[in-house]
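Researcher: Let's do a round of design. I'm pasting the structure tokens now; please hold your answer until I've finished.
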């Protein structure tokens, strides 16, 4: 997957706005729309399989399952919100990673263990785990680092019972910042991981 291809796709779906300095500006919002885009631009493999179940609103039995799951996650004090096409989980960015590191902080494990315990109850879930970085370092470095961060989260969730084939780790690099990268506080917010949860059809 070429970086420019993903950027163009995200922009076309309205996931980000073009700023004069995209390495320091905050995008218009990654959120659930990002998850809908990613599967479509990944060429084959598990990424495309997961992306295929995310497009479009869900209802009926699948919607009931997602409603129940979202409520259970919120009871665990996990930042989960129900969207038109699934569930968006935003992990607490200040607990996850230090600058330039893909090693999870010890305090991140409590939240991830609770998250994994809930996800393990829903074998029909198909999950995209998206890793993001701040703008520190080169774009190439950040692409690789973000993938490693997403994979670090995936491994913890699998250790709690999530099926190996239920989730795919995707590196988004420094794309779609949610805060300016020109402050320490903003960069901390951008070092994040999001989960986009859908139900297999």
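Researcher: That's everything. Go ahead.
Model: Designed sequence:
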């Amino acid at each position: 997957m070429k970086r420019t291809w993903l950027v163009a796709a995200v922009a076309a779906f309205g996931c980000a706005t073009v700023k004069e300095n995209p390495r320091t500006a905050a995008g218009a919002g990654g959120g659930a729309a990002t998850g809908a885009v990613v599967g479509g631009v990944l060429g084959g493999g598990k990424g495309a399989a997961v992306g295929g179940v995310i497009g479009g609103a869900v209802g009926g039995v699948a919607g009931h399952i997602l409603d129940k799951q979202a409520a259970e996650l919120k009871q665990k004090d996990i930042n989960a919100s129900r969207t038109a096409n699934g569930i968006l989980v935003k992990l607490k960015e200040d607990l996850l990673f230090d600058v330039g590191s893909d090693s999870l902080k010890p305090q991140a494990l409590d939240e991830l263990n609770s998250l994994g315990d809930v996800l393990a109850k829903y074998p029909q879930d198909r999950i995209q785990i998206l890793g993001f970085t701040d703008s520190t370092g080169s774009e190439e470095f950040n692409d690789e680092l973000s993938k490693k961060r997403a994979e670090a989260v995936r491994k913890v969730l699998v250790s709690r019972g999530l099926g190996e084939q239920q989730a795919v780790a995707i590196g988004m690099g420094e794309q779609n910042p949610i805060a300016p990268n020109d402050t320490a506080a903003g960069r901390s917010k951008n070092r994040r991981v999001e989960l986009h949860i859908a139900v297999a059809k």
